[in-house]
Amino acid sequence: MSGCSQHTNLLDSAAKGKFSLFRSQLKVSLKNTPPPLVFQPKASKGSPLILAAQKGQNKIVSYILNNFLEHLELEYTMTLKSDVAGHEIKGATALWCAASGGNINIVRELIGAGANINHSTATNTTPLSAAIYHNRQAVIEYLLIQGADSSIADQEGLAPIMIAVLRDDEDAFRLLGK
């Protein structure tokens, strides 16, 4: 099997939460490739950690964090599938993806492992902005409790509270106003 298809299979098992298959594919990948290259995002396909975080695969995220913590802040470019135009987010981390997807348990675990709560993408959106944009109330509340900076504006000049107003999200507005 080629290195490219090995990596694709590894990403697929991470995204789908196939833990046993993921572990066996990871072992094979690590025999042929050093860990930094296994976990480095490939083009717009992502990395095992980022895809598992985005898809809510808690067990795989925990395994990666417990065994490969140094790859926590890797960035990649993702295309939001919910956006008809195929909106790209450059510089997204696992925390940004988990916040956007509303995966509160993974958000907790990533922050507990030391993820940068205020890491900004290329357009200066933060995990808090992503959670507000996607109406992820539990994530918004948790990020704020953990000290997320609600004053960081994106490249359009929109701070999280402005995003909440534009999205007519009274709950997020209330949380941000505390």
Topology (elements, then pairings):
Elements: H1 3-16, H2 19-32, H3 35-39, H4 48-55, H5 58-67, E1 76-79, E2 88-92, H6 94-101, H7 104-112, H8 127-133, H9 137-145, H10 160-166, H11 170-177
Antiparallel strand pairs: 1-2
Helix pairs in contact: 1-2, 1-4, 4-5, 4-6, 5-7, 6-7, 6-8, 8-9, 9-11, 10-11
Features:
about 180 residues, single chain, repeat, mainly alpha, about 55% helix, two-stranded antiparallel ribbon, Serine Threonine Protein Phosphatase 5, Tetratricopeptide repeat
Note down, in words, how this protein is organized.
This protein has helices at 3-16, 19-32, 35-39, 48-55, 58-67, 94-101, 104-112, 127-133, 137-145, 160-166, 170-177, and strands at 76-79, 88-92. The chain is mainly alpha-helical and 178 residues long. The chain has one domain (3-177): Alpha Horseshoe (Serine Threonine Protein Phosphatase 5, Tetratricopeptide repeat), CATH 1.25.40.20. β1 (76-79) and β2 form a beta hairpin. The radius of gyration is 16 Å and the shape is elongated. The protein starts with a helix and ends with a helix.
Summarize the structure.
The chain has 178 residues and is mostly helical. The protein contains 11 helices and 2 strands; from the N terminus they run αααααββαααααα. The longest helix has 14 residues.
- Helicity, as a percent range: 55-70%
The tally of strands reads 2
Report the span from N to C terminus. Answer: 54 Å
Shape verdict: elongated
* CATH topology name: Serine Threonine Protein Phosphatase 5, Tetratricopeptide repeat
> H/E order of the elements?
HHHHHEEHHHHHH
Structural class estimated from helices and strands: mainly alpha
Radius of gyration: 16 Å
Going by CATH, what is the homologous superfamily?
Ankyrin repeat-containing domain
CATH architecture: Alpha Horseshoe
